[in-house]
Amino acid sequence: MKRKYLRMVRRTYRYLRHPRIRKIKWLTPFTQAVFHKRYWSPCRSTVANGLSIGLFCAMLPIPMQMLVAALGCLRARGNVPVAIAACWVTNPITQAPIMMTQHKYGCWLHNTLNLPRPPFISKVEKTFSHPDIDFLGFQLLAEGSNTINMGDFVLGFLASGITLSLIAYPLVWIVSMFLPNRGKAEDPWDPPV
After folding, report:
1. Nearest 5 degrees, angle CA 162-CA 166-CA 170?
2. Cβ contact 82:54 at 8 Å
3. Could you state, in order of their start, the residue ranges of all structural domains in the chain?
4. Helix, strand, coil distribution of the chain in percent, nearest 5
5. Which of 73, 65, 71, 70 is nearest to 92 (CA)?
6. I want to staple 124 with a disulfide (CB 3.0 to 4.6 A). Which of 41, 113, 149, 150 is the partner?
């Protein structure tokens, strides 16, 4: 498993260090920081940070989630390949069901726990009629007319991003207990160059 990961990291590292990319002057500050060894080495603390950042960015309905996750890893000392891979939780196939689930989660948080919606966008609503929408045997929307509130959606994607990013830490630490060296770093962190 570690060999496959290291082989994938080496290939990606070599590809991104191509002279064509290195010649772009405005990317130089980012590429020098992103390509530091500590952001690519697997240990449980960097993998947990990278997975947390990647899952949070995956829940955001924005383009270029992987770029945001990679830049977030620079700030939080996360593993860049893990963060980029975690962003693929929301791919073109799963994006629509995840967005519907985020809206339902935000509606549940607002109605059950009385969490406030963002006031500036909670007045935007859209009502539409549709047939049953199923995904892998789960009924996402019942037949009839439904109302989508943007405040519930914003509350849902922020809450789901925070929830998943918090779940990432114990998940990585539990999985690391089954690894030979318990996922600890082999060399200490050195200050950035």
Report:
1. 165
2. yes
3. 2-89+168-176, 95-156
4. 60, 10, 30
5. 65
6. 150
